[in-house]
Specification:
- There is one protein chain.
- The chain has about 100 residues and is α+β, with helices and mostly antiparallel strands.
- It has two helices and five strands.
- A five-stranded antiparallel β-sheet has the order 4-3-2-1-5.
- A hairpin with a 6-residue loop joins β3 and β4.
- α1 packs antiparallel against α2.
- The protein is globular.
């Protein structure tokens, strides 16, 4: 069984991200859209464990990486996940912190 991201060292996480990036590129070249999306999501999760959750503030609004004009307002933090609302929607959801960018 694979090791959980939360148990990996920084070096192990960086190696995992590099491996996932390579797999994602191969999947994209082969036209395997779903497999590409899975590897991209796993990369986002692994990158979150390299970040400091304390840098993300509940009540603050952030841009979602890769989504044009999409914002996410954090209501609370739980580990490397920010819980809140996307573009003022009514349903609360969680996103990995690596997908959040400061609103400029």
């Amino acid at each position: 069984m694979d090791k959980r991201y939360s148990r990996m060292t920084e070096m192990e996480l960086r190696n995992e991200i590099a491996s996932l990036k390579e797999k994602a590129q191969k999947a994209e070249q082969m036209g395997m859209v779903n497999e590409y999306a899975v590897h991209e999501r796993k990369m986002a999760m692994a990158k979150s464990y390299l970040m400091d959750p304390g840098q993300f503030v509940p009540g603050k609004e952030y841009h979602l990486a890769g989504e044009v004009m999409s914002t996410f307002k954090i209501t609370y933090m739980n580990g490397v996940f920010a819980w809140g609302y996307r573009d003022g929607q009514k349903e609360e959801e969680a996103v990995p912190i690596s997908l959040l960018e400061d609103v400029q």
